[in-house]
Design brief:
About 25% of the residues lie in helices and about 15% in strands. By secondary structure, the protein is an alpha+beta fold. Strands 1, 4, 5, 10 and 11 form a five-stranded antiparallel sheet that branches. Strands 9-6-12-13 form a four-stranded antiparallel sheet. A two-stranded parallel sheet has the order 2-14. The longest helix is centred in the first third of the chain and has 14 residues.
């Protein structure tokens, strides 16, 4: 090997070696700042739901996931996925999306704090050292960790919660009757620093979370049938209806903790829910071995069994086939996803597909189709979800999907949850689909301006998916174009 006399050449060679080895964090020091860091971040689903309180029962706790890909870019070199040597942090940024407000001022979150230990025993502590934490231990701010499968920095389980911010983004109506509106589109700031603490790159992304639409129907339905016009009255009436089914169980009469009051309960104790990371139901007797049944019940502990059917299966099938639902509330509920997901004046399906007049049912199928094709026996799985190239299995659509040849999804993995768009890398087999296109259900260009801001900046003002080559490839074209989807490596 020739002896290298030129110092600049030597530094450049070191930088190339570092890039090849994936140690991009050292590039700034090795080349005196020649390399530039870029970061793009997205929420994993584009829509998340939480429950307003937890006194009676809980479907989903506050839980949100954000991914960020960090790139080191330099002139005439390919960009490098930065996997180490940097600190990538996140922080919720909206008015009132703070530990102090949620702990001390938000009535619904205070309710969640009070009852969460009963819903997630052994006692889950939703507040630790004055900080709100989720069931994963994530807080409203903290550091992200690198995931070698997704090639992204991730935080799983941010306890994001819709709050009133006092801004125009407060559009969500309150399902429990308060006149206070809240924002379903929160913001997380993402910061990349080197080990010395110097900031290398920043961005921000939308962290969506809204209250589900359950109470909109259930509270007035309970009141119509003699129960109080509030969440507890709804809980009692829902329990009564549940008890009329084959299970016999009026869940409002189950006292998990022995305090003499029904609830709170978590539906997935008996009906497994992959959204809670489950492949089978744990069973009430395993969660609370000493639970009691309140006076007046017509069932016994022998009737309280684990169901083999998923929560998604029983919930959707009931609503699609209930005579009461179809005659008194919505005869077309099988297609009206916003009745529940999430309702409350939040139209969270807002991406490019929506603009093209593609509705939820064109990709997923309506409830009747989903029931007929048995999709909800294994909900949230790749096998039962649409792809970029086809709708869900057994579902037909009048729309033409993307060609699997022109727009393949190499680098796809299946972690038992979510579909190929979320769990795929596209360009060069390294870049997440969402890095260029945005969150699923909010794909660029979104109808929500806040979703588009990050990519407009990356694209030099163009409101489209990332297609400006020199964002990643310094010195290449600054004109927007369709990146190569076919030229990829697995």
């Amino acid at each position: 090997m020739k002896k290298i006399k030129n110092k600049a050449m030597l530094i450049a060679l070191i930088a190339v070696i570092v890039v090849t080895l994936g140690g991009a964090a050292a590039l700034s020091a090795a080349q005196g700042g020649t390399y530039t860091y870029k970061v793009l971040a997205w929420n994993d689903l584009g829509m998340h739901c939480a429950c307003p309180g937890a006194e009676t029962f809980l479907l989903l706790p506050p839980f949100n996931t954000v991914r960020a890909q960090v790139l080191a870019t330099g002139v005439n070199t390919d960009p490098t996925i930065v996997s180490s040597g940097v600190v990538v942090s996140y922080a919720m940024a909206d008015n009132n999306e703070t530990d102090n407000y949620l702990i001390n001022s938000d009535p619904y979150f205070k309710n969640i704090i009070e009852y969460s230990p009963k819903l997630f025993p052994p006692p889950f502590l939703p507040v630790v050292n004055g900080k709100v934490v989720s069931i994963t231990g994530a807080g409203l701010a903290g550091n992200m960790t690198y995931n070698a499968t997704s090639k992204a920095w991730e935080v799983v389980g941010i306890p994001a919660f819709p709050v009133p911010t006092g801004t125009a983004s407060d559009i969500m109506t309150d399902p429990l009757g308060s006149t206070v509106k809240r924002t379903p589109y929160l913001t997380a700031n993402i910061t990349v620093k080197n080990t010395a603490g110097a900031t290398l790159a920043t961005t921000n992304t939308v962290v969506p979370v809204a209250f589900g639409g359950c109470c909109t129907c259930h509270i007035p339905l309970g009141a119509q049938n003699g129960f109080t016009n509030d969440a507890y009255g709804s809980f009692q009436y829902m329990g009564k209806l549940h008890g009329k089914g084959v299970s016999k169980i009026d869940f409002s009469l189950i006292d998990p903790t022995g305090d003499g009051k029904g609830g709170p309960i978590r539906c997935s104790w008996c009906h497994w829910d992959p959204a809670m990371g489950e492949t089978a139901a744990q069973g009430l007797d395993k969660v609370w071995p000493n639970y009691t049944i309140l006076a007046g019940a017509t069932f016994t502990k022998a009737d309280v069994k684990v169901s083999t059917r998923s929560f998604s299966d029983v919930l959707h099938k009931f609503h699609a086939q209930s005579t009461v639902v179809l005659t008194q509330f919505d005869a077309n509920i099988s297609k009206n996803c916003y009745d529940c997901h999430p309702g409350n004046n939040v139209n969270c399906y807002r991406g490019a597909m929506k603009t093209a007049n593609v509705w939820c049912t064109d990709c997923h199928g309506d409830l009747n189709k989903r029931i007929a094709t048995n999709q909800m026996a294994q909900p949230w799985q790749q096998s039962s979800l649409p792809t970029c190239n086809a709708p869900s299995a057994g579902v037909t659509t009048v729309f033409t999907c993307h060609s699997a040849t022109t727009y393949p999804t190499p680098g796809t993995w299946d972690n038992g949850l979510f579909g190929k768009f979320i769990n795929s890398r596209g360009h060069k087999g390294s870049i997440l689909c969402s890095t260029c296109h945005g969150s699923p259900h909010a794909e660029s260009p979104s109808t929500l301006a806040k979703d588009n801001a990050q990519l407009i900046t990356a694209n030099g003002g163009v409101n489209k998916p990332l297609g400006k080559c020199d964002f990643c490839h310094k010195g290449k074209s600054s004109t927007w174009g369709v990146p190569m989807h076919m030229k990829v490596t697995r």
